[in-house]
């Protein structure tokens, strides 16, 4: 079953994470859990994929991490760029952008 197009559409989203008292770091484990939950909400079983993010990042605007979704059925792995867009006290807002579209997003601001 081809999953790439469906999962990319499911994950091209905005995330929100509330920081705990441990500091101002967005932890990769938390982002992995969010992505896995989004995929499950889109109808995929947790047995169908594995999510791995590159590492924790400071909770600051424009900080980024990369996450990869590996499919258990051998479909091509998918990469996503996680980019923090806003930090409001203990809340961190971020975009989840399929890597194939991330360069278009960051390279093209308003063309109007």
Write the layout of secondary structure elements.
Elements: H1 4-11, E1 13-18, E2 25-26, H2 28-41, E3 49-53, E4 57-58, E5 64-71, E6 78-88, E7 91-98, H3 99-107
Antiparallel strand pairs: 1-7, 2-4, 3-5, 5-6, 6-7
Would you kindly provide a written description of the structure presented here, covering whatever features stand out?
Residues 13-76 form the DUF4333 domain. Residues 1-27 form the signal peptide. The protein is of the alpha+beta class and 112 residues long. It has three helices and seven strands, in the order αββαβββββα. It has helices at residues 4-11, 28-41, 99-107, and strands at residues 13-18, 25-26, 49-53, 57-58, 64-71, 78-88, 91-98. A five-stranded antiparallel β-sheet has the order 1-7-6-5-3. Strand 5 (64-71) and strand 6 (78-88) form a beta hairpin.
Keywords:
112 residues; alpha+beta; five-stranded antiparallel β-sheet; 7 strands; disordered N terminus; DUF4333 domain-containing protein; signal; DUF4333
